[in-house]
Write a structure and sequence with these properties.
It is a single chain. The chain folds into two domains: 279 residues, Periplasmic binding protein-like II (D-Maltodextrin-Binding Protein, domain 2, 3-Layer(aba) Sandwich), CATH 3.40.190.10; 230 residues, Dipeptide-binding Protein, Domain 3 (Dipeptide-binding Protein, domain 3), CATH 3.10.105. α7 runs antiparallel to α9 and α13 packs antiparallel against α14. With 557 residues, the protein is of the alpha+beta class. The protein is globular.
């Protein structure tokens, strides 16, 4: 079983003080196609991605997919919130019926019948060859973000244009996320024979979804209704995502009415303003997210190449204090105790890491038994080397800066000398973490499907090395052969009970060896004007597709 990648990384947004009025719109606003009469909606976007070739390694930003990819790329399944703690797969209108799943000769065969009304924006039918082309590009293309699941496909039979027959050489439990998820399906009739990446990296004017996207780099993405959309009619006339990467500016734009909705990270000032109340706005926050924010530990770097030091590190921290300080205003006061995100909690041991609470006696016991003793400065030292730890995160993030300050005090009291060294998202995620140039990283992994699957980030054969050009996602250099087969089972089994049993066992082993230390679920916050209709107030957030999963149903009064 090969690596299974289900996560993308949430990068940070800067916070700055803003004085005076803000003007965020260019004079020449994007041209609008005729829509459903539901008005022109403007949304603040905290991040701008690097590219629009969704299968390429440059497309690691969840935000760019939320604002562009998921509205233009056809897909087999949607992520639909049913309640505050339930998100399910539902068949997309692309398909005429539910896919059939059969076992033939020991292999899994999935048959997709394509909706005969499904066409690209130029009127050409969406066909089984588009499935084939997408699969072929992912498994045979260069610089692909993650081929997991697709490399388990043996063939895609496109002999009938209306039916795609996909045969797996190896079972894959997350098959509903394929030909969809955050990739979608590419138009073979447009891209075949071309350099796909060159044709899409800076945006594209075709669509197989409800909207056509116009990306004005550095400014906005404007969505206008696709005139050949085959699903329910789009209700609004346009949706513009305005890039507001400064959280304070984003919030001011929302409260002043310049934008109609925002999906901000839970920064301290955001939480304070939500507590105070925002006039004319609806708000929703949830800890039931695809996020798992943790202290990701480099298991191969001194002093964390010792299990006892990693355990002592964990016993030095009162994680509940950290979480309450950050998110108490939202009613979230307890640490995450599994390395899995909340949306996969049914498959996880949600108490696996609960024993790691502040316990200085335990710290002393572990460190001294590992040959450490405190020096004159009160820090642990062994063989002339002090237990100096550098924590890295994304620069300009007030919440993470506050987290680091709290950790610095707690760890100092326990005998660890913690220093803070933050970087740009590009340097942190593009260089330091893959290359192993870190000891502890503070960031969130974000699931892109509803099934669990941590093999890509913890299986030993996914450790980045010079031999694989540092392409593996196991940045923590976790090397525990006993969890590899468990995580492989999680990725391949179609038996949910078997998946849960294997994943829970892997959770226990991960906690025993303290491969990393989970902190919080990084709650999602949704804010929208009361003038916006079409959002389910009880369960507006789909997790993987965020607040924007049913954007075509939004209207502005």
């Amino acid at each position: 079983m090969r690596a299974r990648q289900i996560t993308r990384v949430v990068a940070a947004c800067a916070i700055a003080t803003v004085v005076g009025a803000i003007s965020i719109f260019p004079a020449n606003a994007a041209v609008r196609r005729q829509g459903g009469g539901g008005g022109d909606i403007v949304i603040g976007a905290e991040q701008e991605g690097d590219c629009a070739d969704w299968i390429s390694s440059c497309a690691g930003s969840s935000w760019q997919i939320w604002i562009m990819g998921q509205h233009t790329m056809p897909r087999t399944f949607d992520f639909v919130p049913k309640s505050k703690t339930s998100i399910v797969y539902e068949r997309n209108v692309l398909l005429a019926s539910e896919p059939t799943v059969e076992e033939e000769g020991g292999k899994t065969v999935i048959t997709y019948e394509i909706n005969p009304d499904a066409v690209w924006s130029d009127g050409e039918p969406i066909t089984s060859h588009d499935f084939f082309y997408t699969w072929d590009q992912i498994v045979n293309g260069e610089d692909i973000y993650d081929p997991t699941g697709y490399i388990d496909i043996e063939s895609v039979d496109d002999s009938d244009p209306a039916v795609a027959v996909v045969t797996f050489s190896t079972p894959y439990s997350g098959w509903r996320s394929l030909f969809g998820g955050q990739y979608g399906i590419y138009p073979s009739h447009i891209l075949e024979g071309q350099d796909r990446n060159a044709a899409t990296v800076n945006g594209y004017d075709w669509s197989g979804g409800p909207y056509i996207a116009d990306w004005q780099k550095g400014v906005s993405v404007t969505l206008t209704p696709n005139p050949n959309w085959y699903g329910d009619p789009v209700k609004n006339d346009s949706v513009t995502f305005q890039f507001l990467t400064d959280t304070a500016a984003e919030f001011q734009a929302f409260t002043s009415g310049q934008v109609d909705a925002i999906y901000p990270q839970p920064q301290p000032d955001v939480i304070e303003q939500i507590e105070a109340g925002i006039e004319g706005a609806n708000s929703y926050f949830t800890p039931y997210t695809p996020n798992a924010e943790a202290l990701w530990i480099n298991n191969a770097a001194f002093p964390f190449d010792s299990v006892k030091v990693r355990q002592a590190f964990a016993y030095s921290i009162d994680r509940d204090v950290v979480v309450e300080r950050l998110f108490g205003g939202l009613g979230i006061t307890e640490a995450l105790n599994t390395i899995n995100p909340p949306i996969t909690a049914e498959f996880a041991d949600t108490e696996a890491f609960s024993k790691y609470t502040l316990n200085l006696k335990k710290v002393k016991q572990l460190m001294t038994s590992d040959g450490w003793e405190k020096n004159a400065d009160g820090f642990w030292e062994k063989d002339g080397e002090q237990a100096d730890i550098v924590i890295q995160s994304t620069e300009g993030n007030a919440r993470r800066a506050l987290t680091e300050e709290i950790l610095q005090e707690l760890l100092g009291n326990a005998g660890f000398n913690l220093t803070i060294e933050n970087h740009s998202a590009g340097d942190l995620f593009g260089q330091n973490l893959p290359n192993g140039d870190f000891q502890v990283g503070l960031y969130a992994q974000v699931a892109t499907q509803l099934e669990p699957g941590n093999c890509s980030i913890f299986c030993s054969y996914n450790i980045p090395t010079e031999d694989n050009e540092f392409s593996g996602q196991n940045w923590t250099r976790t090397d525990l052969p006993q969890i590899d087969p468990l995580l492989e089972t999680v990725g391949s089994s179609s038996d949910s009970d078997e998946v849960a049993a294997a994943n829970k066992k892997a959770d226990k082993i991960s906690a025993k060896f303290l491969i990393s230390l989970p902190l919080d679920p990084l709650p999602n916050i949704s804010l929208w004007s009361k003038d916006i209709k079409g959002i389910n107030k009880k369960a507006p957030d789909s997790g993987v597709f965020a607040l924007f999963w049913n954007l075509a149903e939004w209207t502005k009064s």
